[in-house]
Design a protein that fits this description.
Keywords: Cell membrane, Membrane, Transmembrane, Transmembrane helix. The protein is an alpha+beta fold. The protein contains two helices and five strands; from the N terminus they run βββαββα. The strands form two sheets. It has a three-stranded antiparallel β-sheet with strand order 1-2-3. A two-stranded antiparallel sheet has the order 4-5.
């Protein structure tokens, strides 16, 4: 990996196997890999108390839903900020 300096004010990139990759992309891939590993490592069932009832689910499914809701909210906020 070699750091590119062709664009002093552009997004920071590195060269990986001959391709320019943004550092933001590498960070996202690292965090996504850690999240998937964390979800896969937690497989026991848990009881979740909702307003009305209790639900017993595998922890990996609860973590996956939480991750997807967080991604959706993050994309929504990023989209709204980009429109400004």
């Amino acid at each position: 990996m070699a750091r590119n300096t062709a664009h002093p004010y552009g997004p920071p990139t590195v060269t990986v196997k001959g391709r320019n990759v943004r550092l933001r992309t590498l960070g996202f891939l690292l965090l996504a890999g850690l999240a998937i590993w964390f979800i896969a490592a937690n497989t026991k069932s848990v009881t979740i108390r909702l307003w009305v009832s209790d639900v017993t689910l595998p922890l990996w499914s609860v973590l996956t839903v939480t991750l997807l809701v967080g991604l959706a909210l993050g994309l929504l906020v990023a989209h709204r900020r980009a429109r400004r």
